[in-house]
Design goal:
single chain, alpha/beta, Rossmann fold, 2 domains, 7-stranded parallel β-sheet, 5-stranded parallel β-sheet
Length: 334
């Protein structure tokens, strides 16, 4: 049995893979030419597979993607090939869900506004301009802040588009804050207890109309590309916030900008974009009700160890002939 790794792993990870492979041959390829020269009789592959590499493989049975998302990994020949494809889904779920709630808490408590006030040295509760600059101390005869713009999360509904691993973790956090949680998903038919209702995608409009925060946790697939357009934004509450930590290709940014300009949404938080980096001249940079992070929702000091653990687990499973983790439906890209 033979596993090819390309690009080559560092020494420590390579040693771990060889141990997990339990005597199977593990071959490291530094260059594409090297990979082409050793892949012909490979049973398994980890790394960046290309059409040329796949064409040179005569007996490939398993491919492990180094990524969770597959829009830049999948290609037609791989879809049609009989090999099993697995990915890295599940290792980012709690990390991305934490990022989502960073956005939600920021909007709910108006921290994005108060940060700008801080930069201006402005002591002013939102909506209380007449008392700007005063110190507010509760008690008889004392003024109290009159910021009524905060949201009480336990009064809010969280709508999740895509109830996979990330969506489920986001739902659990929403429930912990007392939020009502709704979800839509094209495949899932069961949900954690914290989800009040799980609907098919045909009811996306109902979810949008009912939610105070809409979170896109869906992957980029042929079906989700460009899914969120102006028509969908118009189904949302004007007081609602839109959050995308899925993939940039799911959201038509021009339509989102138009909806924000028209006041059809209260705001948006985005970690992923149709074009990355987001061009410096893009309108979103200047919108005070928009939060932008540079595709960092999945970042954590824990990810590298989880990534390696998933690889080692699947290597061990493959050599033992056991079912693999994270098997992908290649035609649907997830």
């Amino acid at each position: 049995m033979k596993l090819v790794c390309y690009p080559a792993l560092d020494a420590d990870r390579a040693a771990s893979v060889r141990e997990a492979a339990a005597g199977a041959e593990v071959v490291q390829a530094e260059t594409t030419a090297e990979a082409l020269s050793v892949i012909a009789d490979a049973d398994a592959f980890f790394g960046k597979l290309t059409p040329d590499l796949l064409a040179a493989a005569r007996q490939l049975r398993w491919v492990q993607s180094p990524t969770a998302s597959l829009e830049h990994y999948i290609f037609d020949e791989l879809v049609e090939h009989p090999c099993t494809l697995t990915n890295m889904r599940g290792i980012f779920s709690d990390v991305i869900a934490d990022h989502v709630f960073g956005y939600i808490l920021c909007f709910a408590r108006n921290l994005h506004v108060y940060l700008r006030h801080q930069q201006q040295r402005l002591w002013q509760p939102i909506g209380d301009a007449e008392n700007a600059g005063q110190n507010f101390i509760s008690g008889p005869g004392r003024a109290t802040p009159r910021d009524q713009a905060h949201l009480h999360l336990a009064d809010c509904t969280l709508g999740i588009v895509g109830l996979g691993a990330i969506g489920a973790e986001t739902a659990r956090r929403g429930s912990a804050f007392g939020m009502r949680v709704l979800a839509v998903d094209p495949l899932q038919t069961s949900a954690p207890d914290c989800v009040e209702a799980l609907w098919p995608m045909a009811r996306l409009g109902d979810l949008l109309a009912a939610s105070d925060f809409v979170v896109v946790c869906a992957p980029h697939t042929p079906e989700t590309a460009g899914m969120f357009d102006r028509a969908h934004f118009r189904k949302m509450r004007r007081s609602a916030y839109f959050i995308n930590i899925g993939r940039g290709a799911i959201v038509r940014l021009d339509d989102l900008v138009a909806a924000l300009d028209a006041g059809e949404l209260a705001g948006a938080a985005l970690d992923v974009f149709e074009t990355e980096p987001l061009p410096k001249e893009h309108r979103l940079w200047q919108m005070p009700n928009v939060l932008i992070t540079p595709h960092v929702a999945a970042c954590s000091p824990r990810i590298a160890e989880r990534h390696l653990a998933t690889l080692l687990d699947n290597v061990s499973r493959f050599v033992r002939g056991e079912p693999l983790r994270n098997v992908v439906d290649k035609k649907n890209w997830f």
